[in-house]
């Protein structure tokens, strides 16, 4: 995220220190290089969290299946997975909390840093169904990196997933989250929202390493990958 949507604090106009993180994805003769702007800021979404390169690796591993598909990244923050999806030929929409304009601006900066133009950036707040959410086009894949950060937001995050998956019966949510406590779980909430998930081992898409895409992430953090769908999903 990423996890930017769990921060509700106001964002003032104080100048921020900016740096860049670089990622290199390769598979045989196919390669892409990504540059992601980061800023030192209390808002969670302003730098790349360990979950993001794992999700980006899954996107890269499945790049041929998303070409010309519509991909929405929610809680995008620095937008690494969404940028990778766009570089792989997907039609990408980036989103973050509508109340965090600096995070939305950071999505735009990530696009600009990678020569991407025409990518829509919209404000989507967990559990709120604004005109921006309702007017979204049909979506094939929803990307979510470390959106299960604060337990108080879990139901709102899943309510947003539920809305998107009910509207797009064929769609999938590709989700990475960092294990921070054995007490945290979304399994019981999935049933409440009529959702189901499949755990995908990181080794299946070559993400079971501490340093992905030439970066120092995810490090020694434990990351899980979930593929979430509507129980009534069209296959």
Question: How would the blueprint of this fold be written?
Answer:
Layout lengths: L17 E10 L2 E10 L11 H11 L1 H4 L3 E5 L5 H8 L3 E6 L4 H13 L6 E4 L7 H4 L6 E5 L8 H14 L4 E7 L8 H6 L2 E5 L23 E8 L5
Parallel strand pairs: 3-4, 3-6, 4-5, 6-7
Antiparallel strand pairs: 1-2, 7-9, 8-9
Helix pairs in contact: 1-3
SSE arrangement, N to C: EEHHEHEHEHEHEHEE
Helical segment count:
7
* Strand segment tally: 9
How far apart the termini lie comes to 29 Å
Strand content: 25-35%
Radius of gyration: 16 Å
**Strand order in the sheet with the most strands:** 5-4-3-6-7-9-8
What is the global morphology? globular
Structural class: alpha/beta
Biggest sheet statistics: 7 strands, mixed
Q: Unreliable runs, pLDDT <50, ≥5 residues?
A: 3-12
Mean pLDDT: 91
Determine the fraction of residues in helical runs and give it as a percent range: 25-40%
Characterise the protein shown here.
The chain is α/β, with parallel strands linked by helices and 235 residues long. It is 26% helix and 26% strand. The chain contains seven helices and nine strands, in the order ββααβαβαβαβαβαββ. Strands 5-4-3-6-7-9-8 form a seven-stranded mixed β-sheet. The longest helix is centred in the last third of the chain and has 14 residues.
């Amino acid at each position: 995220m990423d996890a930017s949507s769990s921060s509700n604090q106001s964002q003032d106009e104080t100048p921020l220190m900016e740096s860049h993180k670089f990622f290199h994805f390769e598979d045989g003769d196919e390669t892409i290089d990504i540059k992601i702007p980061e800023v030192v800021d209390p808002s969670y979404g302003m730098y790349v969290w360990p979950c993001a390169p794992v999700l980006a690796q899954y996107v890269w591993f499945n790049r041929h299946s998303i070409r010309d598909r519509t991909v929405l990244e929610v809680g995008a923050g620095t937008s690494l997975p969404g940028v990778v999806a766009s570089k792989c030929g997907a039609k990408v929409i980036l989103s973050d909390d509508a109340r965090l304009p600096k995070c939305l601006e950071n999505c735009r900066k990530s696009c600009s840093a990678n020569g991407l133009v025409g990518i829509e950036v919209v404000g989507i707040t967990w559990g709120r169904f604004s005109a921006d959410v309702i007017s979204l086009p049909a979506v094939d894949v929803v990307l979510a990196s470390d959106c299960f950060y604060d337990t108080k937001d879990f139901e709102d995050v899943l309510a947003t997933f539920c809305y998107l998956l009910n509207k797009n019966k064929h769609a999938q949510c590709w989700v990475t989250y960092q294990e921070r406590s054995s007490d945290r779980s979304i399994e019981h909430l999935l049933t409440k929202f009529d959702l189901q998930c499949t755990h995908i081992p990181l080794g299946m898409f070559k993400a079971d390493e501490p340093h992905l895409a030439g970066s120092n992430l995810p490090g020694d953090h434990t990351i899980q990958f979930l593929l979430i769908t509507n129980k009534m999903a069209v296959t």
